[in-house]
Amino acid sequence: MSLRIERLRTRSQHYLTLKQWDAAAASYESLLAVEPDDVDALLGYAKAQSSRGRVRAAHAAALRAHALAPREPRQVLELAGRLRLLNESGLLVDLLRQSGIERHDDPDALLEQALSASTINAHEESLVLVDRVLELAPDLPEARYLRGNVMMFFGRMDEAEVELERAITLKPGYAQAHWVLSRLRRQTLERNHAQRIRARLAEVRPGGHGETYLSFALHNELHDLGQYADAWRALERGCAAKRGLAPHDRAVTARLFDRLKQLCTANFVNPGPAPEGSFVPIFVIGMHRSGTTLLERILGGHSQVADGGETYLFTGQMKIAADTHVSGVLDQRLLDRVSDVDYQAVGAGFLRASAWRARGHAYLTEKLPSNFLHAGFIAKALPQARFLHMRRDPRETCFSNLRTLFSDIASYSYDQLDMADYYRRYLDLMGHWHDVMPGRILDISYDALVEDAEAVARDVFAFCGLSFEPGTLDLNRNGAVSTASSAQVRGSISKRKVPDWQHYRRHLQPMLEALDDLV
């Protein structure tokens, strides 16, 4: 190694350590000009460019690093994190499968990658990694917690419960574990965790994540027990804590939705040539908690359909094309750049990045509900895509959102009036999509689906160009479900006799009045 190259390497790493991103990017460019196959340099360059907001350059460097097939554990772990941030889930899975990283002996590093695999719905890979972690550190509560989650996603609820209880034994204040445990099964008077959760709530710092998780956990348990007054108080406490952690601004939402409608005219969404791909994407869209998981389970039972779950792959391709980071699914930064986007490249990139999920099937579902925000861009980029829009009673949808603890993706869902305002804007935007691209979206009533699943399923499959298969209505089949409905979508298709919101009617008057004309 020449002295000049060693100096470039040292200088580049120095700038990176100091977070001098511009200087680091320039220095790594000089290094890569003479050492183009240096994996460490490519990873450093990708990090610097990503930190500068240059997503396209970061993406190209990460893809180049992946093509070099690194096997050194440190490089594999760094590259895996970079690929996850860039929504390159297929390449991440390939890296985890081919690198032999499961033979690594650092439990913390392996746990991080197991979590990465789980977040992209690669649960089999996640299970291999977390089992290796537990070989090295059997009493690591975070590993027990993750394994419990993976078992829940696979529908193995008894095993999930064992792992989560083990995590709580090892770490009694593990608020997230208490919360997941509260969702695993219906709680009964004879078998519940309400008193244990109350004891932990008495010890937590007000306004923090612990109070949030434990309050929602207590709400879930008391709701199952029919103790609705106490359940409401727990929900109010949890929502208040979450609002402090993830505040919502209705004005920002209003500007975003209005700008979307201004940009996405009928002329704008008119598609160009369809990019080549081996499968047809089916986008299942709507509000969270509207029945999208149930619909995807039915679709995924078809012999020609692979269920892809919820991903941010389309957002990821828009980020690359617009060369900007994006907060959530869509934000103003992205909208400011959409006129310069190459939509055929976005469509081709989505098909490439999603192909591993299709597993040779002719159709692939993508069921991130909030992709309804992207519907105009998806229609333009993927002329062959089908849109299935789930609609559910506004009161049921909004209350189900209110009592669900999301990450930071749904800040509107912790206040009754914020929730109602967002729902109205969503409904208005869906009307706009129907106006500017008539015939491309099939609306599906949740109530109709649970009342006569076969009739609705026949319409859905016909819209997608598929014949109906009776086995699609069997929800007990194997397969992972990693959404907020993971514990509810196995078994028979049925409707609750009394909608959950009715138990809390007197507390929900602000939201119900705001939705009254939509019912």
UniProtKB/TrEMBL annotation:
<dbReference type="InterPro" id="IPR027417">
    <property type="entry name" value="P-loop_NTPase"/>
</dbReference>
<dbReference type="InterPro" id="IPR011990">
    <property type="entry name" value="TPR-like_helical_dom_sf"/>
</dbReference>
<dbReference type="InterPro" id="IPR026634">
    <property type="entry name" value="TPST-like"/>
</dbReference>
<dbReference type="InterPro" id="IPR019734">
    <property type="entry name" value="TPR_rpt"/>
</dbReference>
<dbReference type="Pfam" id="PF13469">
    <property type="entry name" value="Sulfotransfer_3"/>
</dbReference>
<keyword id="KW-0802">TPR repeat</keyword>
<protein>
    <submittedName>
        <fullName>Sulfotransferase</fullName>
    </submittedName>
</protein>
<keyword id="KW-0808">Transferase</keyword>
<feature type="repeat" description="TPR">
    <location>
        <begin position="141"/>
        <end position="174"/>
    </location>
</feature>
<dbReference type="GO" id="GO:0008476">
    <property type="term" value="F:protein-tyrosine sulfotransferase activity"/>
</dbReference>
